[in-house]
Design goal:
The protein has helices at about 105-120, 150-165, 175-180, 185-195, 195-200, 205-210, 220-265, 275-345, 355-365, 370-450, and strands at about 55-70, 75-90, 100-105. By secondary structure, the chain is mainly alpha-helical.
Length: about 450
């Protein structure tokens, strides 16, 4: 997508907000670079704190999932899954022993972290979380969010989310993210104290901006269309995969019937009995292998689902741009209206119909003093409006610059990840077919020896 030539008629071309202007930004890096400017005192020996966080690199893993029972905000008992996050330094600047932190987090806390990142980094394609409930699964796989297999896949997805954030050149510097990894108690309170909920844009406001922006940026329109198409294509791909998995499951399990028939047949044969028994055994092993194969295949499906959810992250950037563009246009419209009012008062002519004009005709003209006072007030408002419009223009251009840089980074990541996932999936299918050929080759040898 190439940038269109600037239109001189458009004052307004929004761009990104400064993401590090809030009080919680400032941790230079959690992964990839040495942290700079430690600000807090240490929390004790043997743990990674901001004051001793002079690490060049750390490892992050979600190593364990545990089913728990507790009470929710309504004081009702609930069952939920907690995930153990472990962070371990792999390099230390002063050669000290390796430091390790571990703590438990619920899925809702991961959601809170991501919502915070969405608000404070609106120009960034924030990595998505894994699905809360299973979708696009083959019929034999449980869709229960407490099912052990699903919990295990979600554990891997949550670990991937943390690694995505930690490898991002901007998100990795956020203090709230650092505290998410290291501070178990009062972390939610720390997030809420940032006031990020108050900065969040309402859905109604976003919808209003979508339909009322007069000069939308064509690049962001194309990006929104692309995200819709990406989501549609991956959804269809996942549905096809689920249908193929169902059929494949049936084909494999039918081979179990071969095994049963060959085994029963071998019981009534003397010379052919051993060959039939061996062939039946190969068929039974082949039939039972499909369960593990399709469970492994779900991990490739989860890689596709990540980019299914990334489509919404792309749309979130587009919506923020529309909101900024809408605010910019409203500010420009308000400034133009005030300038017109000032001109009409100064010249004594009314260009358009207005309630004020009708009132003047009915009740007489204003005194010179009143008119001068109004002109002076409007001039002050115009001056303030021009400054505000200039600020919004600069903010908008910065948003576009930063957003497009992150979108380019995302595109490179997406191309690399999807290429690898699809190649791995193809290799797995080839390997599976080779095993099927081997089973029938072994069966052929059994029949030949009869």
């Amino acid at each position: 997508m190439e940038q269109a030539a600037p239109d001189p008629e458009r004052l307004l071309q929004p761009a990104p907000l400064e993401p590090l202007s809030h009080p919680d930004a400032g941790l230079e890096s959690v992964v990839g670079e040495e942290a700079k400017g430690a600000r807090d005192e240490g929390h004790g020996d043997g743990t990674m704190t901001e004051s001793n966080f002079s690490l060049k690199k750390i490892e992050i893993s979600v190593s364990e999932a545990e089913k728990r029972t507790g009470r929710n905000a309504m004081n009702m008992q609930e069952t939920y899954t907690a995930y153990l996050i472990e962070t371990r330094s792999v390099e230390h600047s002063d050669g000290q022993s390796v430091l390790t932190d571990s703590l438990w987090r619920r899925y809702s806390e991961f959601e809170l972290l991501r919502n915070y990142l969405l608000v404070y980094y609106p120009h960034i394609v924030v990595p998505p979380l894994p699905e809360k409930r299973a979708e696009f699964v083959w019929h034999k796989l449980s869709a229960d969010n407490m099912d052990p297999d699903f919990v295990e896949r979600r554990r891997i997805g949550l670990e991937n989310f943390l690694l995505r954030v930690a490898s991002h050149p901007i998100l990795c510097r956020d203090k709230i993210f650092y505290l998410f990894l290291t501070q178990e108690g009062n972390w939610k309170e720390t997030v809420n104290e940032t006031g990020f909920q108050l900065k969040a844009d309402s859905r109604l406001k976003a919808l209003n901006a979508t339909f009322r922006v007069k000069n939308p940026d064509k690049r962001f329109i194309e990006l929104k269309h692309y995200s819709d198409e990406l989501q549609s294509v991956i959804s269809h791909l996942l549905r096809v995969r689920a249908r193929v998995a169902d059929r494949l499951y049936g084909v494999y399990k039918v081979h179990g019937n071969y095994g049963r028939v060959f085994s029963e047949w071998s019981a009534i044969e003397k010379e052919m009995g051993d060959g039939l028994q061996s062939a039946g055994h190969h068929m039974d092993v082949y039939a039972s292998s499909i369960d593990d194969i399709l469970e492994d295949e779900e991990h490739y499906a989860d890689q596709l689902k990540e980019y299914l959810f990334y489509a919404e992250a792309l749309r979130a950037v587009c919506r923020k741009h529309e909101l900024m563009q809408y605010d910019l246009e409203m500010a420009a419209q308000d400034l133009a209206s005030k300038k017109q009012q000032c001109e009409e008062l100064a010249t004594g002519t009314v260009r358009t119909f207005s309630l004020k004009g009708m009132t003047t005709k009915l009740f007489g003209q204003e005194t010179p003093e009143q008119r001068e006072a109004r002109i002076k007030m409007l001039e002050e408002q115009i001056k303030e409006g021009e400054q505000q419009l200039k600020s919004k223009n600069l903010e908008g251009r910065e948003f576009v610059k930063n957003a497009w840089a992150d979108i380019e980074r995302f595109k490179e990541q997406k191309n690399h990840d999807l290429k690898e996932a699809l190649i791995s999936y193809a290799v797995m299918q080839i390997s599976m077919c080779k095993k099927g050929i081997q089973v029938w080759t072994n069966a052929k040898e059994c029949f030949s020896k009869m």
